[in-house]
Amino acid sequence: MKTLVVVAHPQIENSATEAFLKTAASFDENVTWHQLATPFDIKREQSLLSAADRIIFQFPMYWYSAPAILKEWLDKVWDNYLVNNHLVTGRELGIVVTVGHAASSFQPGASQQYTIAELLRPYEALAHNLGLQYLPAFPIYQFDQQSDEQRQLLFICYQQYLAIPKLCHFKDEVKWFADRLEKKIANENDPVQRAKIEQLLLLLNDQQDELDDLYMSVKWLREKEDY
Amino acid sequence: MKTLVVVAHPQIENSATEAFLKTAASFDENVTWHQLATPFDIKREQSLLSAADRIIFQFPMYWYSAPAILKEWLDKVWDNYLVNNHLVTGRELGIVVTVGHAASSFQPGASQQYTIAELLRPYEALAHNLGLQYLPAFPIYQFDQQSDEQRQLLFICYQQYLAIPKLCHFKDEVKWFADRLEKKIANENDPVQRAKIEQLLLLLNDQQDELDDLYMSVKWLREKEDY
């Protein structure tokens, strides 16, 4: 699966969040990191879009929307040619949005009043109009105030958001972890370290097998119940 | 009441709709027509905003949002200085949005899936954040296909949207009409025409008096019911 991360940030060189996310994205050769800059080469932008399976709009929230450059890119690159030739039809559209307020403030009655999902409605409408599958958004709240542990989790979850074919499926998450451990084993020169990672991979696979068995049992019980 | 119409249209010279609306707006000396063009003189933009009682964002809908230039203007002009000095607090914010689809297509299950109100949520959130009163939006559907009669109605309704202090109050609408008739009488040289308009004004005022009497009666009946 090929993922295109379209990054819209007017001051990207000053953004610790974007630097962090760029590092996380760099571990996956199927992810293309694409920072928007004017003027746009429309044909090139369109071929990048059409080569992707998953398109991510990634931006800091400015006045409840993406910075102007994302809209400029949409207004210019998502043109009649792109629409009439179905260049993005059937792709997935995900949104990674960084915000300065806490998650709890985005709800009726709280300071921001509206949910992130509501504020992103125009992108959802775009996906609906052009036949893209709209993914659940990936908001990052108050990155500056996150602990090391929260950031470690963010690092993994963000990589998964870019790469896992079926989001929210636990089995795909396990497979994603197993694939990465296998890669790590192949590149590890220290035999002690390698043995440790092999142990971890074995454990993970065993647990997945056990989980599969449990699923089968549950399925069997349910079918029996139907009679 | 001073109204600032902030017009964001990348091809305004080709827009019959904007030409039509500009003509309608030109009849009112309290309305400032302000077409956005880069680069922005931020101080001048801010003083225009702060001098207005009602601010209107007016634009054609491109990909379920305003054209990029409105966002660029918001990102640059609605800055920390504007926020910290409350330059727009207490103003009203209205949205005039022109769309190429029919009104009926903006609802769940129809082709556009989302309501105009939902799609404009980011502007509503902006108003909420900065203490502006958000007015009901003024969408103009398929201007190209409107009949002369529909356009005459649009002409009046749009003028009212820019100028009437309390929107949706019938009495204020009548007052607005009466003011305009009085102005017309003062400028009319033909005595026959003037007599006709005076007749119309008299009729309008009589009907308003009758309506006021009816309101009083209803109020009196309701109060009586309470005992």
From TrEMBL, chains A, B:
Q: Name one GO molecular function term.
A: NAD(P)H dehydrogenase (quinone) activity
Q: What keywords tag this UniProt record? A: Oxidoreductase
InterPro entries tied to this protein: Flavodoxin_fold (IPR003680), Flavoprotein-like_sf (IPR029039), KefG/KefF (IPR046980)
Identify the Pfam families for this entry. Flavodoxin_2 (PF02525)
Flavodoxin-like fold domain location, by residue?
1-150
Membrane-spanning segments = none
Q: What is this protein called?
A: NAD(P)H-dependent oxidoreductase
* Species this protein is from: Limosilactobacillus rudii
